[in-house]
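Hey, I was hoping to borrow your eyes for a little while. A protein chain has come my way and I'm curious about its shape. Take your time with it, there's no hurry, and the full record follows here:
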Amino acid sequence: IVSSANILGVLDFYKTVYRDEQLGEARTQRLVSGRNRSFTDFQRGKSAILIESNWFYYTAIDPQGDFPIADRDAVVGWAKMPARAPGGGVRAQDFVSVSGGNSFVLNPHSKHPREAWSLLAFMNSAPALRNYQEYNEHLCVRD
């Protein structure tokens, strides 16, 4: 089904983490509420590491967030996901994105697909994303 070497590499990475080395909580990942459970486990100190996009730090575990950690800035650190090899990321960066940023989709039955596409293109343009950062602190997907 999949022929892309990069996608196969990602799938092999998940196989290593969850099956071969059992480093991740595979059962939690299969639960309908698994994501929330993993957030709660992290909040309560049951998980040492959580690989998630940076919104988790800025939003979910914000002291006023859904999974608050009152002293978050003092006790929680975060790091960019390292690339498989130095310089192996986009534009020869040493890191890669875990999630790639926000996801937007177009309804295939839209009456105005060109206008919808234009809106999404604008919303994801470098100027729009940089402006958005002024209101919602996070790492920009264009950085």
